[in-house]
Design a protein that fits this description.
This protein has one helix spanning 112-117; strands at 9-14, 22-24, 40-46, 50-58, 79-86, 92-97, 103-108, 135-140, 144-152, 166-175, 183-186, 202-206. By secondary structure, it is mainly β. Strands 1, 2, 3, 4, 5, 6, 7, 8, 9, 10, 11 and 12 form a twelve-stranded mixed beta sheet that branches. The chain is globular and about 45 Å long. 34% of the residues are buried.
């Protein structure tokens, strides 16, 4: 029997107000979490200039071998992933943050991911460089790791963010715990282990207060 579904939506409150946390789970599994699963949670705040994601993952990370911007971080170790789509649009963004605070920054236009996976377009086509001006922080402790990611409104093609702006989003985790394959989890109520499914992500609405 499947666990209860995660909430379908959450509200992002304007900074400095504190938004509610949403847990990362494995809702695609019929028989509960897999061995090695370690919980986490995420929240979102906003200003006119940026969306601010914060995440906290339990369990000290193994680490990630990425050492510069836009390496293939998902192949190199532990990561936090933030997926974001403006509701009603087909394009979306994907951002990775490693425990060492390296980032991968991607913009996927319609059919972009399919073209990359089919070998029709190179990975570099979809990268966002340092001019995107994203900012991230991370902290690693004996109990786990946490971080933040600020996504400027300009990266999303918006002059500014306003209350009630709707998005689709998911915060996901690759947790290698020293194993060959990661233990994955997500805030989205996924029915299969496939993060690139905007229709399965959560609704995110910018609360006015």
């Amino acid at each position: 029997m499947r666990p209860p579904a995660a909430p379908s939506a959450w509200l992002a409150r304007p900074a400095p107000a504190e938004s509610a946390c949403v847990p990362l789970r494995q809702t695609w599994r019929d028989n509960g979490t897999e061995p090695g699963f370690r919980p986490g949670e995420a929240r979102v705040n906003w200003t006119a200039d940026a969306l601010n994601f914060q995440f906290r993952f339990h369990g000290r990370p193994t680490g990630n071998r990425a050492r510069r911007l836009n390496e293939r971080t998902w192949e190199l170790g532990d990561i936090a992933e933030v997926f974001l789509q403006i509701t009603g649009c087909r394009e979306y963004w994907e951002f990775h943050v490693t425990p060492e605070n390296q980032r991968l920054q991607l913009h996927w236009p319609p059919h972009g991911l399919a073209a990359f996976r089919a070998g029709e377009q190179p990975f570099e086509t979809f990268l966002l460089g340092p001019e995107a001006s994203l900012e991230s922080t991370t902290t690693v402790t004996a109990e786990g790791w946490s971080g933040s990611l600020a996504i400027p409104s300009a990266v999303l093609g918006l002059t500014e963010l306003k209350a009630d702006q709707p998005f689709r989003t998911a915060v996901c985790r690759y947790d290698y715990i020293g194993a060959a394959e990661p233990v994955c989890s997500s805030t989205a109520p996924l029915r299969e282990l496939a993060f690139h499914r905007p229709d399965a992500w959560m609704d995110l609405v910018l609360s006015p207060s």
